[in-house]
Automatic annotation (TrEMBL):
Its EC number is 2.4.2.1, 2.4.2.2. InterPro entries: Ppnp, RmlC-like_jellyroll, RmlC_Cupin_sf. Belongs to the nucleoside phosphorylase PpnP family. HAMAP family: Nucleos_phosphorylase_PpnP. SUPFAM superfamilies: RmlC-like cupins (SSF51182). The lineage of its organism: Bacteria, Bacillati, Bacillota, Bacilli, Bacillales. Transmembrane segments: none annotated. Gene3D superfamilies: Jelly Rolls. It comes from the Bacteria. It catalyses: thymidine + phosphate = 2-deoxy-alpha-D-ribose 1-phosphate + thymine; cytidine + phosphate = cytosine + alpha-D-ribose 1-phosphate; guanosine + phosphate = alpha-D-ribose 1-phosphate + guanine; uridine + phosphate = alpha-D-ribose 1-phosphate + uracil. Catalyzes the phosphorolysis of diverse nucleosides, yielding D-ribose 1-phosphate and the respective free bases. Can use uridine, adenosine, guanosine, cytidine, thymidine, inosine and xanthosine as substrates. Also catalyzes the reverse reactions. This is Pyrimidine/purine nucleoside phosphorylase.
Length: 106
């Protein structure tokens, strides 16, 4: 999806790793949330409190979830992270992403 309608956007940035990862929260009328952000090159570790869908819009990165093998996304792709897990990222070029916060049924 490249465009959202009828949403509220929190203008306060979510800033991580000294500004190398930033995002803005988008809230939908049904209560669901997404974040739209940018990651600069670097190595990062994140933790989840609920299931997440990471939709990479542009850029090159590698990711590792649940101790699995490293996987690479070039230009665009999607990966999922279970609730209450951590994941590792190696960002090789500027990455444009959309993170969706999912329920366990999604």
């Amino acid at each position: 999806m490249t465009q959202f309608t009828n949403v509220n956007i929190n203008t306060k940035a979510n800033i991580y790793f000294d500004g190398k990862v930033t995002s803005r929260t988008v809230e939908f009328q049904d209560g669901t949330r997404k974040t739209l952000g940018i990651m600069l090159p670097g190595d990062y570790e994140f933790s989840t409190s609920q299931k997440e869908e990471m939709d990479i819009q542009a850029g090159i990165l590698e990711y590792k979830v649940n101790g699995q093998e490293w996987k690479k996304i070039e230009n665009s792709g999607v990966f999922y992270v279970p609730a209450n897990e951590s994941f590792l990222l190696k960002v090789h070029s500027v990455v444009d992403y959309c993170c969706s916060y999912l329920t366990e049924e999604d």
